[in-house]
Design goal:
Elements: H1 16-22, H2 47-66
Amino acid sequence: YTLGASISKALLRSPAGYFAGSLGIPTVVCGPGSITQAHKPDEFVRLAQLEACDRFLKRVGAFCCARQLP
């Protein structure tokens, strides 16, 4: 989550629906870039977006490792 960014739902193709629906595993799909640029001709992700995603995933990992999960 980036300051000023929004959180929303989107209809995407991923195995998240299987994990959440069939297996009951809480699931989040996230990644760098904008969905408005994804899966189209000439799609791209800016280096700054990759770097921001890397920082975010490191924070998520640190948060998960710092707390005791069930």
